[in-house]
Amino acid sequence: MIEDGAQVVARVVRGGVTESVHRGHAVVLAPDGSELLRRGDPDGAFLPRSALKPVQAVAMLRSGLDLDGELLALACASHSGEPDHLAGVRRVLAGVGLDEADLDNTPALPLDADAATAWVLAGNKPTPLTQNCSGKHAAMLATCVAAGWDRAGYRDPDHPLQRAVRAAVAALTGDGVPAHVTVDGCGAPLFSCTPAGLARAFARIATAPEGTPEQRVATAVRTHPWWVGGTGRFPTRLIEAVPGLVAKDGAEGVFAAALPGGGALAVKIADGSPRPLPAVVTTLLGTLGVSGLADVGHVPVLGHGEAVGEVEAAL
C-alpha cells in the first residue's frame, strides 16, 4: 500500500526552490462520513503505529480498566519521558499493586532530549519506564488485573487483552478483522487498518455519547494534551490550539485527528518522516473549517541556523 498510488502531499522549499517532496496517503472525512479529500490510497491496509493508542484505550476501558483524566491520557500517549510522565506511569501501576519491574515494553531513553540527558547524567540506562509507550503498557497491565486475566504474556496476540484490542480495531475502524498482525516497536501487538478506517475510528471516539469508553478517551485526550505527548510536541500543541480536537501521532509518519462535530482525518507519509506532518495536518484541518494554525503548522527549513524556506503542504 505504501508505494502503490502515493501522491505528493508536501514540498520542502529552500530559497524558493523545491528541494524535495514527501509522498503519502491522506483522507478527510466530513461529519457525515463522506470524503472531502483523498490523496493516494487511503483504503489500503497500513500499520497505524501509536496513532492506534486511543482505540487500544477504548478496548481497555471496555475490559474494566479504571482510569480517567491525565492517567487515561497517558495510556493513549507516546510520552516524552519527562518526570511527571514517569511519575504518572508509576501511579497507574501502583493503583493495581504493581510497579515498574512489571513492565514488559522495550527499554529506551526518554524522547525528550533534556529528560534523556538528565536521566543518563543521573547514572541511569534505558528502561521500560522511560520508553514512550510505558503509559500504554502500564494500562494494559492494570486492565489485566481488573479483568482477572493472567499478566504473563499480556503482549501475546492471543491473550484476552489483545483479542479485545483486535475486536475494538475492527469495530471502530469499520475495516473488519485486521488483515495483518505484527509487533510494534514497544513489543505490543500491532494490528493493521486503513487510513480511512483510522479516520472513522477517531470520528467515532470524538463524537461518542457521554459515559461511553470512547467519550472517556476523548475527554482525557482533549483535557490533558501534555500527557499525550509532552513539552513542545506537535500533537500536544495542536490539541491545545483546536478546542475539542482528539489527535494522535504514530511512528513512520502517521497522524489521525477528529473534531467534536465528527470531521476527521488520517495521514500516512510514505517515506516515514514526521517532518511534513504539521504542515499537512493543519492544512487538512483547514478543509474542515479550522483556521489560525499557521504557527502550529510551520516547519522552517534552515540555512546556517536561519529560516530560508519551509515545508509546505501540497494538497
Q: How would you describe this structure to a colleague?
A:
The chain has one domain: Beta-lactamase (3-Layer(aba) Sandwich), CATH 3.40.710. The chain is 37% helix and 19% strand. The chain is built from twelve helices and ten strands. The strands form two sheets. Strands 1, 2, 3, 6, 7, 8, 9 and 10 form an eight-stranded antiparallel β-sheet that branches. It has a two-stranded antiparallel sheet with strand order 4-5.
Layout of strands and helices, then pairs:
Elements: E1 7-14, E2 17-29, E3 35-39, H1 53-62, H2 69-75, H3 83-94, H4 113-121, H5 134-147, H6 160-173, E4 181-183, E5 189-191, H7 195-206, H8 213-223, H9 225-228, H10 234-241, E6 246-250, E7 254-258, E8 264-269, H11 277-286, H12 294-297, E9 300-303, E10 306-313
Antiparallel strand pairs: 1-2, 1-10, 2-3, 2-8, 4-5, 6-7, 7-8, 9-10
